[in-house]
Amino acid sequence: MSRRPVAAIVKDWKTKQSPSSLEARLATNPNVLCSGHSIFTLKALFFLQSHASFWLLELLLRFGIAWHPQTKLNWAFPTIKKINRGFGYYVKLDRKILYEIQKGGYKAIFRSNTVAFRTDMIEHTETLLRDQTFLEFNKHHLHMYDVFSSPADLRCMISASDYQCILVLDSIIEEDDMDIHMPYYYLHQIWSKEQMDTVASKLSSSACAIGIPRRTDTVRLAIDFWRCKQFLTT
Q1: pTM value?
Q2: CA separation for the pair 29, 26 (Å, rounded)
Q3: What angle is formed at CA 40 by the lines to CA 35 and CA 46, rounded to 5 degrees?
Q4: pLDDT in tens, 201-227
Q5: pLDDT for the residue numbered 40
Q6: Which parts of 22-138 are beta strand (E)?
C-alpha cells in the first residue's frame, strides 16, 4: 500500500481531472500562483519592488490574513487604503480573477483549507474601492479643486498638463461632450447618492465637473479613482 499522504493523492487526482484549474496549475508549477500572472509569489513581488517601478503594485490587489476571535478563524481581507510592501497575497486587480478566487480558488492561493474567504468578496472589495476614492477626495479642501460649470468650460480651459483627472458631476453630460485627453470619471457610477449629495451641497448648482490639479499631494487620489474604475470595468 502506498505510504503517500491522502491529501497528496487527492491533489493528484484533482490535477488529472481538471488540469486547467487553479489548484492544478499551483500543484504543477509552484513558482506561479495563477495563470495570466494574476497572482504573484513573494519572490516575484520582491523583484517588482526592487527592480521595477513601485507603480506596478497599483495593478494588484493585496490580501492579508488575520485572526477573527468571534468566528475563531483566519480570514482573508483586501488591503485597500494603503499599498503595503510587506508579505501578502497579491492578485491582479480584476473582477474576473477575483470571481474565480471567490468560487474556491482561494484555497489554492492561501495553500490552506483553514483560511476563510467572504462569499461576497467582489461586492465587498468594490465597496472598499469606491469608499476609498471618497475618503481621499475629502482629505483636501474643496477650494483646492477647480470647478467647471459646463462642458464648454472643460474644453476651453483644460490642459492635460494641469490636471490629474476630471470628476464629472452631471450624469446628463455624455461622453461626446467630454472631448478631453485625460482620464475622467462619472461620479454617479462610483459614489453613492449620499456621497454625491455631500459634495454637491458644497458646490454651486451650476457645477458639472471638478478638475483634480496635477500636484504631488493628489497623486494618490488619481490612482484611487483609476484603481476603482479598473476593477469596475474588468
Answers
A1: 0.74
A2: 5
A3: 150
A4: 999 988 989 999 999 999 999 999 999
A5: 44
A6: 39-40, 60-68, 73-78, 89-92, 115-116
Strand partners, 116: 75
Work out the angle at residue 38's Cα, subtended by the Cα atoms of residues 114 and 182, and round it to the nearest 5 degrees. Answer: 130
CA 17 to chain centre: 33
Cell of 177: 461632450
What was the pLDDT predicted at 105? 82
Residues 6+ apart with CB under 8 A from 84: 62, 64
> What is the rounded (10 degree) CA torsion for 150, 154, 157, 163?
130
Q: 131-145 as b/e, with b when 16 or more CB fall inside 10 Å?
A: bbbbebbeeeeeeeb
Identify residue 40 by its one-letter amino acid code.
Answer: F
The number of beta carbons lying within 10 Å of the beta carbon of residue 118 is 15
Q: Which of 22-31, 88-97, 105-114 has the lowest mean pLDDT?
A: 22-31
Q: Any idea which residue has 474556491 for its cell?
A: 104
Sign of CA dihedral 51, 39, 222, 76: negative
Q: What is the DSSP letter of 37?
A: G
Spatial CB neighbours of 25, under 8 Å, sequence gap ≥ 6: 32, 34, 35
Q: 203, 134 in Cβ contact below 8 A? A: no
| Grid cell in block for residue 234 | 474588468
pLDDT, one tens digit per residue, over 18-40 is 555 545 554 554 443 443 334 44
Tell me what the mean pLDDT of segment 2-12 comes to. 53
| Residue 212: strand, helix, or coil | strand
